[in-house]
## 1
Amino acid sequence: MSDRNYDVIIIGSGAGGGTLARHLAPTGKSILLLERGDWLKREPENWSVEEVFVKNRYVSSDTWRDKNGKPFQPGVHYFVGGATKMYGAALYRLRKEDFGELKHHDGISPAWPVSYEEMEPYYTKAEHLYQVHGARGEGPTEPPASEAYSFPAVSHEPRIQKPSDDLARSGYHPFHAPCGIILNEKAIPFSTCVRCMDCDGFPCVVHAKSDAEVIAVRPALEYPNVTLLTNAHAIKLNTNPTGTAVSEVAVNRSGQVETFRASIVVVSCGAANSAKLLLMSANDKYPKGLANGSDQVGRNYMYHNSQAVLAISREPNPTRYQKTLGLNDFYFGTAGFEFPMGNIQMVGKSQGPMYKGEKPLEAGLAPTWTLDRLALHAVDFWLSTEDLPKPDNRVTVDGQGN
Ligand SMILES: Cc1cc2nc3c(=O)[nH]c(=O)nc-3n(C[C@H](O)[C@H](O)[C@H](O)COP(=O)(O)OP(=O)(O)OC[C@H]3O[C@@H](n4cnc5c(N)ncnc54)[C@H](O)[C@@H]3O)c2cc1C
């Protein structure tokens, strides 16, 4: 391997790229991991609700444009570990039926080209690697799993145990949600995770969340054959002279363009940025972009179709780590509504400053209800259903590569 020739180049160090680097590291192949961002700085602001939620300290300053040309700041995170630095680490498998065709209220969710059975061994590996804590057999829609979780389910705090018990008494099937946190409840003095409120949406200052930096990139870098370049923005993929494969990656590093070569190049820049890189790599042979003979690159973009729903209870909710409860009783529909409705889980415990701009008075609450009091009494749910693939929901790039 010379300085610029590798067996494998992986572009992006998030859930996809970081995990792949960790998996390939023991093969001894020379691997270059390119990351456009830097290490996320460990600092007290990691756990500041004002900094993270109000000032968007860890959100990219990119400006993208919607279909009408209106600029917006996308919720993307350019760091070693990618979006997992901020994620909620609720590590669910899709259900077996999700891989087949499903009829939704708004249309058809087409079948995947792979089956759940083909994916299952990889789900198992990923759950072990990301130290997922969970319990099998509690949820009504749970797909078959070849192995138990390596770590026990995270216990509910009392205020969450209560709705769990109430739901079970009413005939539903609440379950312990699969959580990727580095928690040892049996030996708390030795546990990395301290069960705090600043997990979902925050970077973890004590590295107790199973994110791709902690679980994948750092361990991969212990192998001498793995090199990470940060602040290394891949701007174009070049093909070999016959156009049969990508052989080079052009990378912008502090304004200088450098070229790296490999026999395998993996594009794992996140859904929108991977499409962007392939589209920006158009050349004379492939004027519509690479891997885009089908004109599907960048199309059928699917997003979290989710909503936070806060139940304001008379009783305070002093829960710290709230993401332990899930409910899938309505996942595929219910009596009187035959279409899938999706998953109900808990969102991280809400805190007063997160409601900036909300008006508790208008929600019918008395003037004594400050935002902090509202947060203390909120039990915070997260409802998600599937976003259907639509060809016109798409990523495009303009002449300037934006
Ligand atoms: C607030 C939040 C909460 C979430 N909660 C959950 C959850 O609880 N459970 C769950 O399963 N998922 C959750 N997700 C989604 C999850 O984080 C993503 O699905 C996952 O990280 C996607 O992995 P990825 O590898 O495709 O992209 P990313 O993890 O985003 O990684 C892409 C990487 O590529 C880098 N990159 C981009 N372009 C280039 C380029 N041109 N050159 C070099 N590097 C580049 C980026 O900087 C980034 O590091 C959440 C996401 C967010 C933002």
Note: The chain is about 15% helix and 20% strand.
## 2
Amino acid sequence: MKIKKTYWWIVVTVIGFALACAMKVEADMKENAPLSGVVIVVDPGHGGKDDGARAEGVKEQDINLAISMKLKSALETQGAKVILTRDGAYDLASEGAKNRKKEDMRKRADIINAEPVDLFISVHLNAYANTSIHGAHAFYRKDDVASIELAEEIQKEFNALTGVEKEKKSGDYFILNETNRPGVLVECGFLSNADDREKLCDKGYQTKLADAITRSILSYLHVLTI
Ligand SMILES: [Zn+2]
């Protein structure tokens, strides 16, 4: 009888220890990879023949891609699975497409709407006739609470990074209108403004933008940050 009792105590202790270890491993994983299990589409705007905005030889499509690659890397470091809509200087339209822009945008929206995407960031740069206008903006999908919350977090980080106080805005963009996942279109700065343009071309600043967006996503998802 006494042997039996001791035996059960050992079993209970071993199981308890195993459970504690499993919980510790899970907690460590969460701390080291807080975006584990989260699928994010990063959409570098424009591509191929469509440069987007241009100023002093700088093409929006190139900077969008550079920032997006850094964003992918920063998000993956936090454990996210990242899908890029493009990873080079091309668009998504098929050979001989009648309306390249329309088909390109449709394909980007389809990638975002496919399972199991949790959220998306569409990366763009701004340009304006008044070259003194500068700063970064987050655009959300009208009346979409999740998109508004994510834009709020991104705008806070952008304002801290740029030192320019801007408000998030509702955006009437295809990528917001034709998708059904929480998402934000970011205009990371103005190519038409000399200071913004110099910063946007700088790899260190591109990394800062990527880190700012990553922190925003962590805040939006209310997950542990390191
Ligand atoms: Zn653009």
Note: Helices lie at 2-32, 60-77, 100-113, 145-162, 174-177, 194-200, 203-220.
